[in-house]
Every structure is written in structure tokens, then in C-alpha cells.
Amino acid sequence: MSQSQQNTILSINSSGRYEGSVTRQVSAKLIEELKAASPTLRVNSRDLAKGLPFIDEQWINANFTDPAEREATQKEKLAFSDSLVEELQAAEKIVIASPVYNFSIPAVLKAWVDLIARARLTFRYTDKGPEGLLKGKKAYLVMASGGVPIESEMDLATKYLKQVLAFVGITDVSVIDATKVDLTTENILSDAEVAEES
User: Fold this and answer.
1) 15 assigned ligand-binding residue
2) Which of 33, 37, 63, 102 is buried deepest, with most CB atoms within 10 A?
3) 3-197 has which CATH code?
4) Taking residues 125-147, what's their average pLDDT?
């Protein structure tokens, strides 16, 4: 892991709400605590609610074309996806804040997943099956739902995000139920570590 990775955190917000968003508030406090624990930490923020492109036929064709054989238009089509992958590669820690919409994740977060799940960049196929290439990173999932208990059988969002992260090699994942966090008193980071150990 490079020195830049050791000092970088990627913050991803996906809630369609800004004012009153529980996941935005809790993830912001978590990042404050991470920065307090590591003052040199640099934060790279990506607000998915501002919009992401969905993959289409041109994108898929470009992605499946050997990198050495891609035309200029294909490289341009993949440029934004490349930048998202680079953000992930450069981060030591990732904070993904997501509400649970209709038992799953927001569409913009699914679009992000589609854009970063790149063979040869974030995972590769081997004789033993797919292997994630983003190993050695720590992820925090800040989840909130108005009616579905986080990490219950009905919560498909958290399960899906953990599976996606594991697929690209990120297996050290802490889940924070943002609906149970008291922002005025709780130490989110220590609570997340205790929950992980228990």
C-alpha cells in the first residue's frame, strides 16, 4: 500500500435527501472521528445524488474490448468509470452512506457499483474463480431505513453492498446502523469496532 493510500479516505453519499439525511449526518461524524484519529487523513468525497450515467451498449462494448485495442471514442466512454476506479484504488478507507430504498440501495449507488466493477481493474478471473484486486482496504457501511431493520432478512441493501465489496477484494467491512446513532453522545468509530468484534 502506498503512502497516499494510507492517508486517504473515500466518502460516498447516495441519499436523495440533503437536509435531514441521517446517513449524511452519521457518515460526516464518522469521517470527523477518522480524521481526529489520523490528522493527516485526506478525504475525497463523491456525492452520487448529483447524478451518475448508467452503463449502456457502447460502454459495455468498450469495457469488453482489450485495453490495447480500444479506440479513442471507447476510451472516452470509459473515462468517467476509470476515474471512479482510481478513487477506489487510491483510498485506504471507504465510507459508503446509503439509505434503504424499497429493501435495496438507491439507483445511483447501483450505477456506481456497475461503473467500478471492472475486470482487470477491480477484479480478475482466475482458474479458481473471480479474485478481488482491492485488497487491504477498510470499508464502513452507514445504513439507514425507515422501516426495514438493518442487517435483517428484509435488508437486501446491506447484504448486497457487502457482497459487492467482497467481490472486489474488500472484506474488512463494518456496518453502522445510522438510525440508532445519537450524534450528540456516541463515538461512532469505537461502537463500530465493538460491533465488529462481537
Assistant:
1) yes
2) 63
3) 3.40.50.360
4) 95
Whether the pLDDT of residue 194 is over 50: the answer is no
Provide the b/e sequence for 139-156 (b: ≥16 CB within 10 Å): bbbbbbbeebebbeeebe
pTM of the model: 0.92
Secondary structure string (H, E, C) spanning 22-65: HHHHHHHHHHHHHHHHCCCCEEEEEEHHHCCCCCCHHHHHHHHC
Per-residue pLDDT at 184: 81
